[in-house]
Amino acid sequence: MPVELLKNEQELVKKLGRRIRGKGDATVSVLDMGCGTGRLAAYLREEADCEVLGIDVMRDKIERARRIRGRGVEFGVQSAEYMGLKDETFDFVVSLKVLHEIPHPEIALREAIRVLKNRGRILIIDWIGGIAATKRHAHASRYFTPQQLESLFSLTGFENIVIETNKEGELMLAEAIKQMHMK
């Protein structure tokens, strides 16, 4: 069964999937950080034909993801800030509208650096802070502006940072590469 994407997610999630699928013939490993019920993880498994591990701190969401997302995606209860995963395991770390929910996003991004392979990439989709379209959201005070997110990526060891917005201008896709000397 195809994965249902919310209307405001479709444009950027499809771009994210194309970038992962464009990696080549080798099997690509992806970590979905803060996967919730696994929509993004299942979408990437279907569309980008990659190996995906989804992690989330909410046990009930992980249990639901395991029930409804089928085969080909693994799920585990883990914090994005303190992952029990091996160093340099993943080609990509992704997340969909969750970075603002993580209590210590800097720690989570440092963990992403740790679990990414050399020159691995991070692709984060999240709400844009400080704009009229998102000011009324319940978590608006936690949203990052593109400049704040770029600074946070740079501070935590990412380079070649590119941030683009969706057509509606309310979501952004931030992409960056793990610096070669980072571990």
List keywords for this structure.
183 residues, alpha/beta, Rossmann fold, seven-stranded mixed β-sheet, 29% helix, globular
Task: Provide an overview of this structure.
The protein is of the alpha/beta class and 183 residues long. The chain has a single domain (10-178), classed as 3-Layer(aba) Sandwich (Rossmann fold), CATH 3.40.50.150. Helix content is 29%, strand content 28%. The chain has five helices and seven strands. Strands 3-2-1-4-5-7-6 form a seven-stranded mixed beta sheet, with helices on both faces. Strand 2 (51-56), helix 3 (59-68) and strand 3 (73-77) form a beta-alpha-beta unit. Helix 1 (10-21) packs across helix 2. The N and C termini lie far apart (38 Å). The mean pLDDT is 91.
List the helices and strands and how they pair.
Elements: H1 10-21, E1 29-33, H2 39-48, E2 51-56, H3 59-68, E3 73-77, E4 90-96, H4 105-115, E5 116-127, H5 146-155, E6 158-165, E7 171-178
Parallel strand pairs: 1-2, 1-4, 2-3, 4-5
Antiparallel strand pairs: 5-7, 6-7
Helix pairs in contact: 1-2
Summarize this, please?
The protein has a single domain, classed as Vaccinia Virus protein VP39 (Rossmann fold). Helices cover 29% and strands 28% of the residues.
Number of domains: 1
- List low-confidence stretches: none
Percent range for β-strand residues? 25-35%
CATH level 3 topology: Rossmann fold
- The whole-angstrom Rg is 15 Å
H/I helix tally: 5
Largest sheet features = 7 strands, mixed
**CATH level 1 class label:** Alpha Beta
Global shape: globular
Structural class: alpha/beta
CATH homologous superfamily designation:
Vaccinia Virus protein VP39
Sheet with the most strands: spatial strand order: 3-2-1-4-5-7-6
